[in-house]
């Protein structure tokens, strides 16, 4: 059964003083391309990229992904991470598009409060993805997985984004589609809004199935 928006929880949240968005799977529909990139690395080494592998890798940085793949089938973790990053850049270039409602939500949010992006993706991939989606102009502050010592699920990227926005984490909203990202935002002390079918974890304060959900649009109107 499809999960619906947590309207009561949304209405109970105070309007944020800033918003920090995740990118992949939240603002941009990159997951099919990410799956293709991971699958290419697995296939090249004679392994099947199945649901178990997907679950072990989703939401991780390329460095973390290299480490996981090294444990799964051997090989140098750094080289695997580089290979994965190269595959991701090539795959995203095929045509990743914004998630439904993403452009409008970013535009409306940016008109009300400071906004930023905190991503586990490497810097070249993050910049290319946001530019391809037409979102870069609305999001001048971005933190990539390359910019912090410890990527998600650690809070570093969210703390860095809030510091750049000059807004305390506890007054900021994180918008996330994965448990890894939600854990990171929660550890940073932020209010966490989960979006999409993969956002099922105990770290959320509210949930919507998509960025164009009417409940989210209604709440945005109260800021």
Give structural notes.
With 223 residues, the chain is an alpha/beta fold. It has 2 domains: 7-29 and 96-220, 3-Layer(aba) Sandwich (Rossmann fold), CATH 3.40.50; 31-92. Helix content is 44%, strand content 12%. The chain has 10 helices and 8 strands. It has helices spanning 7-11, 31-44, 51-57, 62-73, 77-92, 102-110, 123-132, 156-165, 179-187, 214-220, and strands at residues 18-21, 28-29, 97-98, 115-118, 142-143, 172-176, 191-195, 206-208. The strands form 2 sheets. Strands 5-4-1-6-7-8 form a 6-stranded parallel sheet. Strands 2-3 form a two-stranded antiparallel sheet. Helix 2 (31-44) packs across helix 5. The mean pLDDT is 93.
Give the key terms.
223 residues, alpha/beta, Rossmann fold, 2 domains, six-stranded parallel β-sheet, two-stranded antiparallel sheet, 8 strands, 44% helix
Strand/helix succession: HEEHHHHEHEHEHEHEEH
Q: Biggest sheet: strands side by side, in what order? A: 5-4-1-6-7-8
The count of β-strands is 8
CATH class identity of the largest domain: Alpha Beta
Largest sheet: 6 strands, parallel
The CATH topology of the largest domain is given as Rossmann fold
In DSSP terms (H or I, runs of 4 or more residues), the helix count works out at 10
Question: What is the CATH homology-level superfamily of the largest domain?
Answer: HAD superfamily/HAD-like
Judging from the principal axes of the Cα atoms, what is the shape?
A: globular
User: What is the CATH-assigned architecture of the largest domain?
Assistant: 3-Layer(aba) Sandwich
Counting helices, strands and paired strands, the structural category is alpha/beta
- What is the CA-atom radius of gyration, in angstroms? 17 Å
Strand content: 5-15%
| Integer average pLDDT | 93
Number of domains: 2
Whole-Å distance between the termini? 31 Å
Helix content: 40-55%
Low-confidence region ranges: none
């Amino acid at each position: 059964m499809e999960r619906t928006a947590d309207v009561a929880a949304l209405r109970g949240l105070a309007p944020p003083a800033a918003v920090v968005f995740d990118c992949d799977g939240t603002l941009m529909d990159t997951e099919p391309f990410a799956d293709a990139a991971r699958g290419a690395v697995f296939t090249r080494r004679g392994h099947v990229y199945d649901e178990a592998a997907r679950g072990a890798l989703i939401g991780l940085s390329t460095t973390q992904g290299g480490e996981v793949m090294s444990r799964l089938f051997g090989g140098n973790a750094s080289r695997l991470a580089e290979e994965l990053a190269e595959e991701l850049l090539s795959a995203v270039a095929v045509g990743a598009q914004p998630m439904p409602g993403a452009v409008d939500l970013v535009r409306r949010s940016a008109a009300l409060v400071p906004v930023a992006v905190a991503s586990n993706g490497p810097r070249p991939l993050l910049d290319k993805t946001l530019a391809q989606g037409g979102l870069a102009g609305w999001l001048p502050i971005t933190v990539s997985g390359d910019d912090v010592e410890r990527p998600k699920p650690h809070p570093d990227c969210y703390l860095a984004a809030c510091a750049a926005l000059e807004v305390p984490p506890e007054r900021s909203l994180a918008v996330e589609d994965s448990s890894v990202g939600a854990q990171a935002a929660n550890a940073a002390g932020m209010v966490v809004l989960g979006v999409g079918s993969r956002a099922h974890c105990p770290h959320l304060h509210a949930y919507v199935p998509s960025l164009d959900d009417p409940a989210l649009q209604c709440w945005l109107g109260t800021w």
